[in-house]
Design goal:
Layout (H helix, E strand, L loop, with lengths): L1 H14 L21 E5 L9 H16 L2 E5 L7 H10 L4 E4 L5 H10 L4 E5 L5 H4 L5 E6 L1 H15 L4 E6 L4 H20 L5 E2 L11 H13 L4 E5 L2 H17 L5 E4 L11 E7 L1 H14 L6 E4 L6 E3 L8 H16 L5
Parallel strand pairs: 1-2, 1-3, 3-4, 4-5, 5-11, 6-7, 6-8, 8-9, 9-10
Antiparallel strand pairs: 10-12
Helix pairs in contact: 1-3, 2-10, 3-4, 6-7, 6-11, 8-9
Length: 341
């Protein structure tokens, strides 16, 4: 994707030499109607089997539903955020989709310079849309506490050592919210089962693409007794799953488990027993519709268990049937708003 980034930067420079009044024929569909375009930038890989892949697939799904075309530039460094966004803006894209709070500064800068372009910021803070001087930024915000609950309830039921772990990528407010929700749900459910749950301190890799850090973190936390893992770290989580699978192989059976997110990735690794699933596509579709209706920006679109944006994925056969029943009952309580009440 780095070559593609270079290409779009070159094209953007070329477009800057074209007279502003020249018609962009590529912006119309075959029936003469406007062809809307969305572009995604991502610092992780869209082939990582985790966050990057799930966010990319959500955009593809939303674009398919709305009839938009799309492009993506992935595996970019932090110092490339703004230039990647600006390049797509210069190419006439209608909406920029940035899947993470870490892109906030670059998004706000570009949104000020490109007032006619919509910017959808996944996991953006509630206050971010109000900081956009042109009111052309919307935050797409899945409920971090509920995400943590979905994983934490299962962790509290499944742990045998009564020690559980969480791995973070970058130290973001959303990640901290997931960690807090994971811990409170696990401890609540564990207490109902007669357990006292120990949640290890969350290590942060400082990135979403350092799988070696995930490998290192998981080995250390397994040594500290952790037998159920959850994370918010994309490729770092992939490294952790590698360490867990290696440990289980050496042990001769699956004794340490992992809960995936944000897509249903059951079967990707032997250690995965379930996934917390986020339907980001629903929020992206709502953003695209707002662009087409001419009323995009200045708001936060929330994703919750109640509106179907959050859910639990399929459960592994490694989860005993009685635990599956208890877990699904807790999910029902979360949806009803009675969990931990």
């Amino acid at each position: 994707m780095k070559k593609f980034l270079a290409l779009i930067l070159a094209l953007a420079m070329a477009l800057s030499l074209v007279a502003c009044g020249q018609k962009d024929a590529g912006n119309e569909g075959g029936n003469g109607e406007k062809q809307y375009k969305v572009a995604m930038i991502c610092d992780s890989s869209i082939s990582d089997g985790g966050w990057g892949a799930a966010c990319y697939n959500a955009m593809v799904d939303a674009a398919g539903k709305m009839g938009w075309t799309y492009e993506v530039t992935d595996s970019i460094a932090q110092n490339e955020y703004y230039e990647s966004i600006a390049a797509y803006c210069a190419l006439g894209f209608d909406m920029i989709y940035a899947p993470g709070n870490q892109y906030t500064d670059a998004v706000l800068q570009a949104a000020e310079e490109y007032p006619d372009i919509a910017f959808a910021l996944l996991n953006g803070n509630e206050a971010t849309p109000g900081k956009a001087v042109n009111k052309n930024v919307t935050s797409l915000l899945p409920d971090a506490q509920q995400i943590g609950w979905i994983a934490g309830a299962l962790a509290g039921l499944m742990t045998q050592s009564n020690t559980i772990a969480f791995i973070g990528g970058m130290e973001l407010d959303t990640t901290k919210g997931k960690y807090a929700g994971y811990g409170e749900a696990a401890k609540f459910v564990g207490e109902k089962e007669g357990k006292t749950i120990n949640l290890l301190d969350c290590p942060f890799a400082g990135s979403f693409d350092d799988s070696a850090k995930g490998l290192e973190f998981a080995k250390t936390m397994i040594d500290q007794g952790a037998d159920v893992f959850f994370g918010d770290a994309s490729a770092v989580d992939s490294g952790a799953r590698q360490a867990i699978d290696e440990y289980n192989k050496a042990a001769g059976s699956v004794k340490v488990f992992d809960i995936g997110q944000p897509a249903d990735i059951l079967g990707q690794n032997e250690c995965i027993i379930c996934s917390q699933v986020t339907d980001n596509s629903a929020m992206i579709v709502a953003s695209m519709q707002a662009v087409q209706d001419g009323n995009f920006g200045g708001e936060t679109l929330y994703g919750t268990l109640q509106n179907g944006a959050l859910s639990a994925g399929k459960l592994s056969e490694l989860v005993p049937s009685e635990i599956q029943t208890k877990y699904l009952a807790y999910i029902d309580e979360m949806v009803a708003g009675t969990f931990m009440k």
